[in-house]
Amino acid sequence: MKRSNLLTEWLPPLVVIVAVFAIWEAGVALLRVPEFILPGPTAVWVALVKWREAIWFNASQTLYTTLVGFAMALAGGMGLGLAIGYSTLVYRALYPLLVAFNSVPKAAIVPVLVIWFGIGTIPAILTAFLISFFPIVVNVATGLATLEPELQDVLRSLGASKREIFLKVGIPRSLPYFFASLKVSVTLAFVGAVISETVAANKGIGYLMIAASSRFEVPLVFAGLIVVAAMGVALFAFFAIIEHRLTSWAYRGPALTV
Fold first, then answer.
1. Cβ-contact 192, 106 below 8 angstroms
2. Which residue, 116, 141, 146, 170, shows the most beta carbons closer than 10 Å to its own?
3. pLDDT in the model for residue 142
4. Could you tell me which residue, 149 or 234, shows the higher pLDDT?
5. Closest-CA residue to 134 (of 95, 176, 174, 173)
6. pLDDT beyond 90 at 5
7. What does the alpha-carbon distance between residue 61 and residue 196 come to, in Å, rounded to a whole number?
8. What is the pLDDT of residues 81-93, one digit of tens each?
9. Under a CB-based contact definition with an 8 Å cutoff, are residues 37 and 218 in contact?
């Protein structure tokens, strides 16, 4: 990638991030906000350095539960999305149930998961799975549903079967929707894992934040938030790069892919 393209792509978000932190630090200093209410970025940075070993340990746990839950959502969501997109009968049978299930707040399910599996890693994995599953299903099914009827008629007139149209045209056409759902779902998986950790866990960033807030270690709470945000941005960028490499044919401009 050319140097000018790198500057165009990375400079605007870096400038915005630096500006946000500068405004945050200046606002806290000028208004003399107590640290236990809203610490400035420098106080958060000091907490990050001071508690780096505990943050690293708990961030590793959160990343693990998030990725396992997201992998389950990826496999299940893609399979079910393909089934819904392929069969009208499956669509009519399952879609209302999926919409109803997605309407249930996932935070309300965590206590049930704790009753079933106890406090620990499994409820966090399952919450990450449940919250990131639905967007993948919907996007894959939508991608298959956007295949134009006229195109299908032309392919049938050329002798293509329904299975061939599905495999050779439908699935490739759904890839932009699929990768778009991955970028959304992986950030939702972090949300699900941290929610579960704040309710019932003995390790993880959510557990660390709850423990820190009980001791009024507010800079450490914000340090946990920033670590979660950084991991979410990193995974979002990872899937955006994969999307750009595999489905660049679907976009007319690079700005839509990242």
1. yes
2. 141
3. 84
4. 234
5. 95
6. no
7. 12
8. 888 888 888 888 8
9. yes
